[in-house]
Amino acid sequence: MSRHNDTRGDWSQRSQRQTMDMTDQHGRPWFATVEIRTGDPCGLIEQRFIAPLVPPQQYLKRVPRKPYDLLIDYAGWKADIRQARGEWEREGRQIARKLHGSAYRPDAPFSIEVLEMIGEAPSAIEPVIAAEQGNKWVLGLTNRVDMRLVKFFEPEQVDPDYRDSEEEGDFSDELEAEYNPPAQPVQETVRPKAHRTRTSDWNEFAAERMKEGKTMKQAGEEWKARRTQTA
C-alpha cells in the first residue's frame, strides 16, 4: 500500500495531510485524505472500484494498528436494515388499521394509501448478506451477473451485456430464517407481502423477453423505449 502527498489546499494543510490507500476485507481498493498525526480521515473514504452495492460511510471501519486495512461492518449494516424494516412495517400496520378498520388484514400487502404515507420499503438486506458472503457481482469483482440478486437493483444498475450467473455464495438459508420466521400466535408478527415496484415490473418484462429468445441488452432497450413512450 502507499501514501501520496496531498497537494490540495494551502501549505499548512499539505504539511499535515496526505492521501492514504486502503484495502477492504474483499481486497478492493479505497482511499482517503488523512491527518498525518492521527491517521484519521479528513473527509469521505472513497472507493476505487465500481460495484452495484457500495457500503454507506458509517459502516466503513478502520482497523486498529493496521492503517491500510478497511473493514466493512456488515453486522451493524444488517442490524440497521432490520430495525428500519421493522419500524416501517409497524408504522404501516398501525396506519392500515386506522384506514381500513374491520377490513384490515395483517397478512395483506400495504395499500397504495398506506404506502403514500410511509413511503417505499427500506433497502433490502439480501444484497448486504450476499456481499458479506463474498458474492463477486455485488462486490464489483466480476461482470457476471448473479440473477438471484437482480430484482433488488434498478435496471440501470445491471450490466445489460450479462452472461449466465454463477452460484457465488449461498445466502438462501439466512434469508429463509430472516424473512420466513416460524408462525407466531400474535397477528402483528405476520409480514405483509411485498408490494409491486418499478423493479418488479422490469423483472417480469425481462423474463418474458428472455423466453422469446432475446438478450438482456435487447430487453433493456425495449424497456427504455416503452418508458419513454409512457412518460
Tell me what you see in this structure:
By secondary structure, the protein is of the alpha+beta class. The chain has a domain at 3-71. It has helices spanning 11-16, 74-100, 112-118, 126-132, 136-139, 172-179, 198-211, 216-230, and strands at 3-5, 17-24, 29-35, 46-47, 60-63, 66-72. Strands 1, 2, 3, 4, 5 and 6 form a 6-stranded mixed sheet that branches. A hairpin with a 4-residue loop joins strand 2 (17-24) and strand 3 (29-35). The longest helix is centred in the middle third of the chain and has 27 residues, at 74-100. It is globular and about 65 Å long. The model is unreliable at 163-168 and 176-197 (pLDDT under 50).
